[in-house]
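To assess whether the prediction recovers the assembly geometry, we first specified each molecular entity separately, as shown.
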Amino acid sequence: MSGHHNSQLRNPLILGDKTYHQISEDIAKPVEGKAGKLWWIAFCISATTALWGVGCMAYTIGTGIGAWGLNRTVDWAWDITNFVWWVGIGHAGTLISAVLLLLRQKWRMAVNRSAEAMTIFAVMMAAVFPFLHMGRIWLAYFVFPLPNQFGSLWVNFNSPLLWDVFAISTYFTVSLVFWYIGLIPDFAMIRDRAKVQANKVRETIYRVLSFGWSGRAKDWQRFEEVSLVLAGLATPLVFSVHSIVSMDFATSVVPGWHTTIFPPYFVAGAIFSGFAMVLTLLLVARKVLHLEEYITVQHVELMNIVIMLTGSIVGVAYITELFMAWYSGVEYEQYAFLNRATGPYWWSYASMMTCNVVSPQLMWFKKLRTNLAFTFFLSIIVNIGMWFERFVIIVTSIHRDFMPSAWSMFHPSFIDVGVFVGTIGIFMTFFLLFTRFFPVLAQAELKSIVKSVGSQYSDKSNKQHH
Amino acid sequence: MNYTYSKQGQTISYALIAGGVLAAIIGYMTADTERLTERLWANLLLDNFYFLGISLFSIFFIALQYAAQSGWWVSVKRVAEAMSTFLIIPGIIMVFIFLVGGHHLYHHWLEEGVTDPASANYDKVIAGKSAYLNMPFFLIRMLIYIAGWVGAGYLFRKYSKLEDESSDVLYYRKSFKTAVIFLPFFAVTSVTAAWDWLMSIDTHWYSTMYGWYIFGGMWASGTAMMLLFSIHLKNKGYFPGVNDNHFHELGRMLFATSFLWTYLWFCQFMLIWYSNIPEEVTYYQARFHAYNVPFFGMLLFNFAAPMLVLMARDSKRSMGYTATIAVMVLIGHWVNTFCLIMPGTVGDKWHMGLLELGLYLLYLGIFLFVVRKALEKRRVIVAHDPYLVESEHFHM
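The predicted structure of the complete assembly is given in tokenized form:
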């Protein structure tokens, strides 16, 4: 839509009457300046946690997955929970950048860059778990369909785990390319500024990174075209990745795993948790990097509405599952859900229900969804809830299977916990480095909308002329 | 500008209604008598649900656009409003179908003695569902759904009319409020209505996806109908401000919802087929064997055609292409509804004959008549809306 014909009900998306130059200044500042004390503290904590995680990973590789808390009945628990949790978090980035681009939502431009970065780091963290679970990680290349002459067996194309390999690697590739292409004009901006500032080292680095971007009309035309094509390609991927992850469970015959609603419900849950993580990161980043005029309360509110919507979809799915378990008349199905809610893992079920179904409903109140401290708190609650959701689905469905003599419990080992917390550390380390070396906002895109949604152009009193 | 329902247009509706009744009577008289009563009721349910879905979609569409604070749709708002007026008719007929013909459609769980262990008709699985599937509760639910949907449609139309008369933003806010209250209600009732009216025909069978899958079908077929009405109004000159961009947006919605429906269809089908659990897979076995051609054939209409044709930007902006695809999608989703209802009611004794055609034309005739009458009553483009300015200058 043409920016100069906004409804008087629309609020400006960029505050502080920004000019083009101010946008450049604001966004280049963290890259050009020195890191503050807060950044260093956060970095040290993250890096230490990351090191602990790397130690636990090395231990797992050295001794084998016996170091984990798995047993014969619960032979898939902590690792797959973490895998699904991270992949889910990795969903918001592409949704924001691809789906919202296709829907021409301008508010995405303040959050897309960091959301995409988060996506890429989250998918990398997700990949850690299946790799570690292979045990002999040095043979990992056998997940790809290699010719028979190469060695042993052709992969099993009937297995959803193999579909995962394709789905996630495609998703990762497209997300990475999409993200990088968006970065090119912004890298070029830093390069050009470095030239003026006579900073040779920085100029060289960003010259390489910006692929010789010239800013000519032809460059921009190709840039826009490829963005649209990639957005078109990435949109089905938003759906396919988590649908296929859900099929890891839903194609089985295990009560609690085999249910047809899984694919769309997993997608909704992934967007739910992804947006929560975006909020967790951005609420901190906007303060530390002074981006309050770009990532406004309105942006936070819109993301909270997405959380409320997807949380409600997830809630409908939970209740549908519960109802259908009863309605099916299949006693195993009924028991699986009864056991979830009232069995020895009732507390994880209760946490999941509280965090995922009840708490997002609080976002119906405008006071709460525009309250930044509350939003920050809730975004963490949602991510805890989404971790429990996967834990509930995975562990409670298999710890009491068809044969009561095999029933058992799952207890994570020290190594289990270490690997998981370690991935959070690595993730945060990557994200912190990202905020120092990359333009955190898509400045080129912001400049393209500033004249339609900048505060100086959308004075409400002047908007009555239509 | 006001819409005039032309004499010629009215004649078409009357001809559809008369022709439909005639064809249905001839179809009924000449039909194979085996399972004929079931076939008649099943057809009534089929067309009734199909058109109910299309008009229910329009209320959902209005609510969605308000809640999302969307701007572009304001120019075509009246089309959705007019489509929503039809809902009351299939709503009432739905109650009639259940009360009079219920025993031919939902006999598995309505039968005497199904819940009585002493009876020869006793069925343990169905008895277990009787707390949900029983005559009074089913009827109460039905009345709640219809009252809620029709009520929401009425409120949207009322506020929109009042908004025409005053430029006050108050009515916009009221519509917005109605929308955000209606959407959760719709989220639950659209799912349970699908379980009640369609899934309970195959009483033993269950699928958690079912409600969303039915919703996907409503969305696609409703969009197709809305697109056709918009094209009609554009061609007759009532839509000077509605341009390629608006049609692009509608075409995009048809494209996206066709994908959504196919995605939901595929996931439900694939997971059940893959797991091959006897209780579940029987549902698809019945469709594989006796309904092979319509069951898979509809994918050409509902998926392949919209995907291949509407992928390109230019075709979404061409009324010829979008209209053709919209008609195909409407046919495809009728076949989809056919495959949902028939296997559980007439089994392998299905036909697509004069009876089916006649009842469809009858419903189509009434639908077109009611919607176009409703269009006549108000300005074709709203006089006031805070987002009207955005819709007039919509560009993508």
